[in-house]
Amino acid sequence: MKTVPEVLFVCVHNAGRSQMAAGLLDHHAAGRVHVRSAGSAPAAEINPAVRAAMAEIGLDISREFPKPLTDDVVRAADVVITMGCGDACPICPASATSTGNSTTPRAGHRRGPPDRWGPGRRGSRDQRGRRARHGAQQPTSIG
After folding, report:
1. Residue range 90-139, pLDDT digits in tens
2. CA angle, corner 67, sides to 62 and 69, nearest 5?
3. How many CB atoms within 10 Å of residue 118?
4. Which single residue of 13, 35, 55, 90 has CA 20 to 30 Å from 63?
5. What positions carry a catalytic annotation?
6. Domain containing 113: what range?
7. Phi (first) and psi of residue 2, to 5 degrees
8. Tell me, what CATH number does 55's domain have?
9. Is residue 70 part of a domain?
10. Is 131 a member of any domain?
11. Would you say 123 and 15 are in contact if contact means Cβ atoms under 8 Å apart?
Protein backbone atom coordinates (compact mmCIF):
# COMPACT_ATOMS: atom_id res chain seq x y z
CA MET A 1 0.00 0.00 0.00
CA LYS A 2 1.32 3.43 -0.98
CA THR A 3 1.97 5.98 1.70
CA VAL A 4 2.51 8.85 -0.76
CA PRO A 5 1.08 9.50 -4.23
CA GLU A 6 3.28 8.75 -7.23
CA VAL A 7 3.67 11.25 -10.06
CA LEU A 8 5.12 10.34 -13.44
CA PHE A 9 6.35 13.03 -15.87
CA VAL A 10 6.43 11.80 -19.48
CA CYS A 11 8.08 13.28 -22.53
CA VAL A 12 9.50 11.79 -25.68
CA HIS A 13 13.22 11.93 -24.85
CA ASN A 14 13.11 12.28 -21.05
CA ALA A 15 16.12 14.55 -21.43
CA GLY A 16 14.75 18.01 -20.66
CA ARG A 17 11.35 19.16 -19.51
CA SER A 18 10.29 15.93 -17.80
CA GLN A 19 13.61 15.77 -15.94
CA MET A 20 13.26 19.39 -14.81
CA ALA A 21 9.69 18.86 -13.68
CA ALA A 22 10.59 15.70 -11.77
CA GLY A 23 13.57 17.34 -10.06
CA LEU A 24 11.55 20.40 -9.09
CA LEU A 25 8.59 18.45 -7.73
CA ASP A 26 10.88 16.09 -5.83
CA HIS A 27 12.60 19.10 -4.25
CA HIS A 28 9.43 20.99 -3.34
CA ALA A 29 7.47 17.93 -2.19
CA ALA A 30 10.21 16.96 0.28
CA GLY A 31 9.11 13.32 0.44
CA ARG A 32 5.36 13.92 0.29
CA VAL A 33 5.26 12.67 -3.33
CA HIS A 34 7.20 9.91 -5.08
CA VAL A 35 8.39 11.33 -8.41
CA ARG A 36 9.46 9.54 -11.59
CA SER A 37 10.06 10.55 -15.18
CA ALA A 38 10.25 8.53 -18.39
CA GLY A 39 10.29 8.88 -22.15
CA SER A 40 8.73 7.01 -25.05
CA ALA A 41 12.05 7.25 -26.94
CA PRO A 42 14.67 8.07 -24.27
CA ALA A 43 17.74 10.02 -25.31
CA ALA A 44 21.25 8.86 -24.51
CA GLU A 45 21.71 11.56 -21.87
CA ILE A 46 20.05 14.54 -20.24
CA ASN A 47 20.60 17.78 -22.11
CA PRO A 48 23.61 19.54 -20.54
CA ALA A 49 21.75 22.87 -20.67
CA VAL A 50 19.02 21.34 -18.49
CA ARG A 51 21.56 20.10 -15.93
CA ALA A 52 23.13 23.56 -15.85
CA ALA A 53 19.76 25.34 -15.52
CA MET A 54 18.87 23.14 -12.55
CA ALA A 55 22.30 23.63 -10.98
CA GLU A 56 21.76 27.41 -11.17
CA ILE A 57 18.98 27.03 -8.60
CA GLY A 58 20.87 24.54 -6.46
CA LEU A 59 19.30 21.31 -7.75
CA ASP A 60 21.71 18.58 -8.76
CA ILE A 61 20.24 16.17 -11.32
CA SER A 62 23.63 14.78 -12.35
CA ARG A 63 22.67 11.27 -11.18
CA GLU A 64 19.54 11.23 -13.32
CA PHE A 65 19.36 9.71 -16.79
CA PRO A 66 16.67 9.23 -19.45
CA LYS A 67 14.48 6.24 -18.62
CA PRO A 68 12.11 4.23 -20.82
CA LEU A 69 8.37 4.49 -20.44
CA THR A 70 6.95 1.09 -19.49
CA ASP A 71 3.47 -0.18 -18.70
CA ASP A 72 4.59 -0.94 -15.13
CA VAL A 73 5.79 2.61 -14.54
CA VAL A 74 2.52 4.03 -15.88
CA ARG A 75 0.39 1.63 -13.81
CA ALA A 76 2.29 2.53 -10.65
CA ALA A 77 1.56 6.24 -11.11
CA ASP A 78 -1.36 7.99 -9.47
CA VAL A 79 -0.83 11.01 -11.73
CA VAL A 80 0.75 11.03 -15.20
CA ILE A 81 1.76 14.38 -16.63
CA THR A 82 2.79 14.66 -20.26
CA MET A 83 5.02 17.56 -21.09
CA GLY A 84 3.10 19.01 -24.02
CA CYS A 85 4.97 17.35 -26.86
CA GLY A 86 1.85 17.20 -28.98
CA ASP A 87 1.23 13.99 -30.93
CA ALA A 88 4.75 12.75 -30.18
CA CYS A 89 3.93 12.21 -26.51
CA PRO A 90 2.16 8.99 -25.71
CA ILE A 91 -1.26 8.96 -24.07
CA CYS A 92 -1.03 7.23 -20.72
CA PRO A 93 -4.04 5.93 -18.79
CA ALA A 94 -3.82 6.79 -15.09
CA SER A 95 -5.92 8.12 -12.25
CA ALA A 96 -5.28 11.63 -13.56
CA THR A 97 -3.49 12.71 -16.68
CA SER A 98 -2.54 16.25 -17.50
CA THR A 99 -0.68 17.98 -20.26
CA GLY A 100 1.97 20.42 -19.12
CA ASN A 101 1.27 22.65 -22.12
CA SER A 102 4.48 24.40 -22.91
CA THR A 103 5.71 26.56 -25.72
CA THR A 104 9.34 25.90 -24.79
CA PRO A 105 11.27 23.98 -27.48
CA ARG A 106 12.19 20.38 -26.72
CA ALA A 107 15.48 19.80 -24.91
CA GLY A 108 17.35 18.82 -28.07
CA HIS A 109 16.69 22.17 -29.66
CA ARG A 110 19.05 24.11 -27.38
CA ARG A 111 22.62 23.08 -26.85
CA GLY A 112 25.75 24.97 -26.03
CA PRO A 113 27.07 27.05 -23.14
CA PRO A 114 24.58 28.72 -20.77
CA ASP A 115 25.35 32.20 -22.11
CA ARG A 116 23.93 31.11 -25.49
CA TRP A 117 20.65 29.51 -24.29
CA GLY A 118 18.65 32.69 -24.06
CA PRO A 119 15.75 32.77 -21.63
CA GLY A 120 14.04 29.58 -22.91
CA ARG A 121 15.62 26.97 -20.64
CA ARG A 122 15.37 29.16 -17.55
CA GLY A 123 11.79 30.10 -18.40
CA SER A 124 10.89 26.44 -18.78
CA ARG A 125 12.56 25.64 -15.48
CA ASP A 126 10.87 28.53 -13.68
CA GLN A 127 7.42 27.68 -15.08
CA ARG A 128 7.81 24.10 -13.88
CA GLY A 129 9.07 25.36 -10.52
CA ARG A 130 5.88 27.32 -9.95
CA ARG A 131 3.76 24.29 -10.82
CA ALA A 132 5.93 22.03 -8.66
CA ARG A 133 5.57 24.27 -5.60
CA HIS A 134 1.79 24.25 -6.03
CA GLY A 135 1.71 20.50 -6.73
CA ALA A 136 3.85 19.71 -3.71
CA GLN A 137 1.20 21.32 -1.53
CA GLN A 138 -1.72 19.60 -3.30
CA PRO A 139 -0.40 16.47 -5.11
CA THR A 140 -3.74 15.56 -6.66
CA SER A 141 -3.94 18.95 -8.42
CA ILE A 142 -0.59 18.69 -10.19
CA GLY A 143 -0.69 19.61 -13.84
Report:
1. 555 544 444 444 333 333 333 344 444 444 555 666 766 666 666 666 65
2. 155
3. 10
4. 90
5. 11, 85, 89
6. 6-141
7. -75, 140
8. 3.40.50.2300
9. yes
10. yes
11. no
